[in-house]
Amino acid sequence: MKEKCGIFGIYAPGKNVAEIIFYGLQALQHRGQESAGIAVSDGENILVFKDLGLVSQVFNQQSLAPLQGYIGIGHTRYSTKGSNIWKNSQPLYRMFRDESFAIAHNGNLINVDDLRKEQVGKGIAFETTTDTEVIASLIESSTEDNIEAAIKDAVKRLRGSYSLVILTRDKLIGVRDPHGFRPMILGTLDGNYIIASETCALDIIDARFIREIDPGEIMVIDQNGLRSQMVLSVDRISMCVFELIYFARPDSYIHGKNMFEVRHKMGQELAKESPADADIVIPVPDSGIPAAIGYSQASRIPYAEGFIKNRYIGRTFIQPHQEAREIGIRLKLNPLKEVVRGKRLVVVDDSIVRGNTSRQIVKALYNAGAREVHMRISSPPLLYPCYYGIDMATKKEFVANHRTLEDIRKYLNVESLKYLSIEGLVRAIGEPKDKFCFACFNGDYPVPIPEGLLFDKYSIDKEEKASSNV
């Protein structure tokens, strides 16, 4: 699974902000690895530079040098809506009347097709396939007198998840959807304001965390300081629980809680719910490490590093042959034979999607001499697709959707398999369940999904559609 994007914005009179944004985006690189971009304003003009690739591949001294300005936004992208091509990279540069603006977006709109059709009906042409451009077009075509009012008018029409940073000639504007699906925080650096996806983006530039931007809040930062307004009706706060399980960096904080510690507690709860008779606990790196440490401490089974991870391998594209796919997995993870040989292992991972990778990991451990493998997953079984900005498998492809726990155990070829319960997950988080979206586990979607989307490629295939009761 991949999260959609990371966003960063800063208003800092007297500073040249491009390099600060560059470092902030590097801290948010885990949220998207397909493209990166920065837009800056010097108070009069907006300049944008973006390209495909990692932040460090897109930007260097030569590309950063022309980006002179004291206000700016940045974006690092993983595509869930729109293919990975240059024109879909962000920030997008647009015009509201005679005023330019740039916009960057983290999230996914569920009413984007309707909005796009409506805009096309007005004679508006689109250059990209992103929902971000649809948001920009709503701002561009607004009949309001100023861009702040146009933004407020536009976001009231959006349904789904969105955390936005918008750069005008002389303002930095942040918007978070009324459900708070994606994280968004406010920080300060030398008396200046920063908006970002996660607190880890503040740490890298030695900035200070102020607070989380509230669901439904619009924040405007300009020469008069910071102004906040709640213009979106908040019916149900529903932060994506997978931010806490996997997406947010372990050193980030959400709701005042450190993500490493939350995942550590998930492992402890997992050990209480699903003990195992084993010699060592090993994680599937890197995402399984905090939970594995927690499982070890709660179970009193020694913790060990059972894999070496090749940190110079990027995303592995799907290969046409099974042999090539297996090589791709071995490129990333290689068992430490001396650690696992002859041992009964508890292997802790954060989730199982299709099960293919987990199956190959188990096979590699047995080939390295493991005596037993007990798989423990620090989240509940994935059953339903996400429509709010996470690139997941289809409903049919979720291994837990069409197989029993015993079927999955046999498919993975493990001695035992257990998932953390939703109740255990809530206990580990330490916050009320109704603050989060658990739709991928229980199908309870906070924002109703249009029927057409329920049958698209993100959910169920044509055969299922014919027999579905949805």
At a glance:
The protein is built from 18 helices and 25 strands. The protein is an alpha+beta fold.
Protein model, in words:
The chain is of the alpha+beta class and 470 residues long. The protein folds into two domains: 2-237, Aminohydrolase, N-terminal nucleophile (Ntn) domain (Glutamine Phosphoribosylpyrophosphate, subunit 1, domain 1, 4-Layer Sandwich), CATH 3.60.20; 257-467, Rossmann fold (3-Layer(aba) Sandwich), CATH 3.40.50. It is built from 18 helices and 25 strands. It has a seven-stranded antiparallel β-sheet. A six-stranded antiparallel β-sheet has the order 6-7-8-9-13-14. It has a four-stranded parallel β-sheet with strand order 18-21-22-24, with helices on both faces. Helix 9 packs across helix 10 and helix 9 packs antiparallel against helix 15. 49% of the residues are buried.
Keywords:
single chain; 470 residues; alpha+beta; Glutamine Phosphoribosylpyrophosphate, subunit 1, domain 1; Rossmann fold; 7-stranded antiparallel beta sheet; 18 helices; 30% helix; globular; disordered C terminus
